[in-house]
Write a structure and sequence with these properties.
- The structure is a homodimer.
- By secondary structure, chain A is mainly alpha-helical.
- Chain A has a single domain, classed as Orthogonal Bundle (Tetracycline Repressor, domain 2).
- Helices cover about 80% and strands about 0% of the residues of chain A.
- In chain A, helix 8 crosses helix 9.
- The first copy, chain A, starts with a helix and ends with a helix.
- Chains A and B meet through helix 7, helix 9 and helix 10 of A and helix 7, helix 9 and helix 10 of B.
- Chain B binds a DNA duplex (30 and 30 nucleotides) through helix 3.
- Chains A, B: Keywords: DNA-binding, Transcription, Transcription regulation.
- Chains A, B: This is TetR/AcrR family transcriptional regulator.
- Chains A, B: InterPro entries: Homeodomain-like_sf (IPR009057), HTH-type_TetR-like_transc_reg (IPR050109), HTH_TetR (IPR001647).
DNA sequence: GGTGAATTTGGCCATGTGTCCAGAATCTTC
DNA sequence: GAAGATTCTGGACACATGGCCAAATTCACC
């Protein structure tokens, strides 16, 4: 049973969390522009018309803010492939739609992915937001694995690689194309589509 | 024809470059410990018993120093597989020796590789040492491609992947195992050996 | 509308940053 | 061993950083 007080507290917490999400969302683009290390709280303030104080009111510090921001973005990002896995009716369709989606996110959100790799690397040096990064890594590995197993299922076969390897290979492909794309190679958009398709097809 | 003056100048340049290499080498370990962003010139000075002034005498700035340091390490690193490619007499031997070598460098020099990925990512945000990073990336892709083509040759076949894809996949595998290893997973050493072997075997 | 809580502001602090340089120390050359 | 070039030192500089907080503002509720 919930008392009136409990409901009020719940509501207050929800409101607080909602504002946290809002602020983290605003901050995200600012941090993505120049990377974690080169973006100070003041840069975020200036770009978002927020005071630096408010960031410390809603977050315990820079690490907390960045962890919240990247979690919001990337956890949503990992779910974009759910409908593809759920509704594809043939292996070829699955491969095709996966390739289109991953190519689109490379094209439209390269800054965010650059930030993701930036933060994942930073977390190898210090543990400020390491747990969040590890959780996201798991989500991404799950996503890749869901695609691989669905693909195998549609082919009536079993995957020839394990979950971790599948993630490592897709991630390597994506990072490579992201770097190429950021360095100005527009063909990277085609590359990620074709190469991830080939990789998926080879994973049976 | 070289005059005495020219020879003297050459010698002076050589000496200057030799000292640069020496200093960059000393600095390398210090930078690798906490990453590029979190390591100041003063940290390097303190850890290496060098004055901060001398760093600016031999280098134009922090970027120059770090570019020199990572180039020295990584360009040598990429050549370690040359003898393996040159002297392996069967595809299986090549795969085996490659796996042992890559696993050993993961075990013994994880800090350096962590720094490499750190710097490669930083170079996606600013161009301070971007050219050096791109040059190293080329070296690494060449190295992987040399292994893949040699493997195909020993099998009497042709590679089924292109140079860039081969590098992307091996790099993805290595980065994944590096992350796992740094997070405390000792099995990563076995994983990189077995998975890179499997990948190489599949690249025909 | 008044009262207390929640929210927001903008500036302060100590510390750390890359860069630079005047002068000291060392080496070279005659 | 004198003179001049090279190498090296350690501190100064201007600025950026994350964290913090007293005071101002806005809000919710009786």
């Amino acid at each position: 049973m919930t008392t009136a007080t409990e409901r009020a507290e719940r509501s207050a917490t929800d409101k607080f969390d909602a504002r946290r999400r809002e602020l983290a969302d605003s901050a995200l683009a600012a941090i993505a522009e120049h990377g974690f290390a080169r973006t100070g709280l003041r840069d975020i303030s200036a770009r978002t018309d927020l005071s630096t104080g408010i960031l410390h009111y809603y977050f315990t510090g820079k690490d907390d803010l960045i962890a919240q921001a990247i979690w919001q973005y990337k956890s949503e990002c990992a779910r974009r492939y759910d409908p593809i896995v759920a509704t594809s009716t043939s292996a070829d369709e699955l491969i095709e739609r996966f390739g289109v989606e991953i190519s689109a996110t490379l094209r439209d959100e390269s800054d965010m992915h650059r930030l993701w790799y930036d933060l994942r690397n930073q977390s190898l040096f210090e543990d400020g937001f390491r747990d969040t990064i590890i959780a996201i890594d798991e989500l991404l590995a799950d996503m890749v694995w869901a695609v691989v197993t669905k693909h195998a299922e549609l082919r009536g076969a079993s995957p020839t690689v394990d979950r971790e390897t599948a993630y490592a290979l897709v991630d390597g492909l994506f990072l490579n194309c992201l770097i190429g794309y950021l360095r100005g190679d527009l063909e990277a958009l085609d590359h990620i589509r074709k190469r991830s398709a080939a990789l998926l097809a080879a994973s049976i």
